[in-house]
Design goal:
Blueprint: E1 2-10, E2 16-25, E3 30-34, H1 41-48, E4 56-61, E5 64-65, H2 74-79, E6 81-85, H3 96-105, H4 111-124, H5 140-152, E7 158-162, H6 170-185, E8 189-194, H7 197-200, E9 206-211, E10 214-219, H8 222-225
Parallel strand pairs: 3-8, 3-9, 6-7, 7-8
Antiparallel strand pairs: 1-2, 1-4, 4-5, 9-10
Helix pairs in contact: 3-4, 3-5, 4-5
Length: about 230
């Protein structure tokens, strides 16, 4: 569960990233966060990931109260979420298998568990046959699927997808969102940031629109957000 209660974020130069935001996202929801560049979407995500700190108000994510979160608790918070970025962020010197396994190795997951979970998630995203390939041998869509596998491998309660379709073609964009939709159907909360109105027309999911650091609208699905 994610809950913003009167949350504002003010940067050192006085610019507001968010202004008095109140939003609740329940476990198991699929939510699109829509907005133009500079609307406040990135700030919204950075606060959830605890990359930025709340200036005022209260923010709770997966049972953690972030306003007073101690530094030693930050790794626990981040293990409860998987993150998919627009620019993939794969390690170029590692093959597909090791890029996914890396997310488990940094949390000291036993070798036997890594050997079981990595092939499982690679098969889930349709890339088991590419396990030994290097990132530069993959298409953009395949690289994004590796990034999705890496986000999934820790069995997170929440997946944050930050413009995951921004660097891939429209057909692959639909495939990525279809995968996220399937993952959501088994109980994982999905929070996907996008500016692509056409993309979300296909899906009957909640749409939160941010403009000027404020919540412009919060609708059950795209048909009500137009």
């Amino acid at each position: 569960m994610i809950e913003f209660k009167n949350v504002s974020k003010v940067y050192p130069n006085g610019t507001y990233g968010l202004k008095d935001v109140n939003v609740r996202i329940d476990d198991g929801e699929f939510v699109f966060v829509l907005g133009a560049s500079g609307a406040g979407k990135s700030t919204f995500l950075k606060l959830i990931m605890h990359e930025e700190k709340v200036t005022s108000g209260e923010l709770v994510v997966n049972g953690f109260s972030l306003a007073g979160l101690k530094q030693r608790e930050v790794p626990k918070l981040r293990r409860s979420m998987g993150i998919v970025f627009q620019d993939f962020r794969l390690i170029p010197s590692m093959n597909v298998y090791d890029n996914v396994a890396f997310a488990l190795r940094v949390t000291d997951t036993p070798y036997r568990e890594i050997r079981k979970r990595v092939p499982f998630v690679l098969d889930l995203v349709g890339l088991i046959h590419k396990a030994k390939n290097m990132p530069n041998e993959l298409s953009g869509g395949e690289q994004q699927r590796v990034a999705l596998a890496r986000a999934l491998v820790n069995k997170p309660a929440l997946i944050i997808a930050d413009e995951p379709t921004g660097n891939i073609d429209p057909e692959m964009s639909m495939e990525i969102v279809d995968m996220l939709d399937s993952i959501n159907k088994v109980g994982t909360t999905i929070l996907m940031v996008t500016h692509e109105h056409e993309l979300i027309r296909r899906y009957d999911h909640r749409v939160i629109t941010i403009e000027g650091g404020s919540i412009l609208s919060d609708r059950p699905d795209w048909r009500d957000a137009r």
